[in-house]
Specification:
With 376 residues, the chain is mainly β. The protein has a single domain, classed as Beta-galactosidase, Chain A, domain 5 (Distorted Sandwich). The protein has a nine-stranded antiparallel sheet. Strands 18-27-26-23-20-21 form a six-stranded antiparallel sheet, with no helix packed on it. It is globular, with a radius of gyration of 20 Å.
């Protein structure tokens, strides 16, 4: 029986560069719905699957994760990623579902940076600030698929000098690997021909019950961080790092998201819930868990590992059910959580924070992994 299952699974694999899943995926996606031409570049659906039967689907539009089928405590496969059934959903809806965001993930104050004495003005698309690289950030671009194997897909994108106001022709590379222990490992790299800034992150919306209509309030949440970066009323960081102790931002002991996110504090009012960056205590040690999220209902556990100094957490505060995702299910209020491993927001304007500056001859590298398991 085991060999039969492996034979079936093997038929679903991407086995060579450029090959794609022809039939319906485990998550119910149809490849034909993702084959399109956007601004002269072709999009497609790509499927990775490991020996455990975990399946992850991608599209090269925004180098995004479209779905991830993982087993719950009963062995039932659930899709834990919010997204759409077709490429049209991603093009027509202004969401960052599953995408790589950049050239600079998160916010830059009024879109202003200065590099080597030269000032640059970036587009402002969020409360007067530049968010996720601007309205035409990487999440809206079609990446080139460099290679595909059964468990790895590598995508690249060349951001032109001056694109969205950023200096330098910057080549970025994103390698996704589905590991044998049910982790989605992401390796980012970039080079430039002119001094620039870079901060790449994945913007997957995780719903560990596989139901975008259900709230995340009962999820037990842990963050390995004793500090966070507070924001003002426009969600811009103030330049401070404050202790989480004695505040609703303290997740050093696992606590239900709903117990904290609805508390009436200034910081939570500003974000309409959680939309903040935590200063991780992991100090770049990828063997330490940066964050852990558990659904008591499904038993699905998500652990985050990274070499980056920060973790932006967004509790789905602006989801309101108006966006209809896969299977015709509305993406309801606080139905998912985003966990972005990154440099701190607005780091280009705070020299005392980890630098996002990339110069010619250097290589930007960053790593994160989303590892799934079950808790009985």
């Amino acid at each position: 029986m085991k060999n039969s299952l492996l034979t079936i699974f093997s038929a679903l694999l991407l086995v060579a560069c450029g090959h794609v899943q022809e039939n319906t995926t485990l998550s119910g996606l149809q490849r034909a719905n993702f084959v399109a031409e956007i601004e002269g570049k072709n999009t497609d659906l790509y499927v990775l699957q490991n020996a455990n039967g975990m399946e992850v689907c991608f599209t090269n539009h925004g180098a995004r994760i479209v779905s991830a089928m993982v087993p719950d405590r009963e062995g039932v496969m659930r899709d834990v990623i919010l997204g759409f059934d077709s490429i049209q959903g991603y093009v027509e809806k202004a969401t960052d579902f599953g995408a790589i965001v950049g050239r600079y993930a998160n916010r830059i104050d009024h879109g202003r940076i200065t590099l080597d004495g030269e000032a640059y003005q970036l587009p402002c698309n969020n409360y007067g600030h530049c968010l996720h690289g601007g309205p035409r950030g990487f999440q809206t671009q079609v990446f080139d698929v460099e290679s595909v194997t059964d468990t790895t897909i590598v995508m690249t994108y060349l951001a032109a000098d001056g694109e969205e106001g950023f200096p330098g022709n910057m080549m970025c590379r994103v390698a996704y690997t589905l590991t044998h222990d049910n982790a989605i490992a992401i390796q980012f790299s970039a080079t430039t021909d002119k001094t620039t800034i870079v901060n790449l992150a994945n913007h997957a919306y995780f719903n560990l019950d596989g139901d975008a209509s259900k709230s995340n309030a009962d999820y037990l949440f842990y963050i390995n961080a004793s500090g966070y970066t507070p924001v003002d009323s426009t969600l811009m960081t103030t330049g401070e790092i404050l202790a989480v102790e004695g505040t609703p931002m303290d997740f050093r002991t696992p606590v239900a998201v709903g117990e904290r996110v609805g508390q009436d504090t200034e910081q939570l009012r500003y974000g309409m819930g959680i939309d903040h960056n935590w200063v991780l205590d992991t100090a770049g040690d990828m063997s330490q868990v940066a964050a852990r999220l558990v659904s008591p209902a499904s038993g699905i556990v998500l652990e985050v590992y990274t070499d980056q100094p920060g973790l932006q957490v967004y509790s789905g505060n602006f989801l309101d059910g108006s966006v209809v995702g896969k299977g015709g299910v509305p993406c309801n209020y606080r139905s998912a959580i985003v966990l972005e491993t990154q440099k701190y927001p607005n780091s280009p304007n705070y020299p005392h924070w980890p630098s996002p500056v990339l110069r010619p001859g250097e290589t930007y590298e960053a790593f994160c992994a989303y590892k799934f398991s079950v808790e009985q």
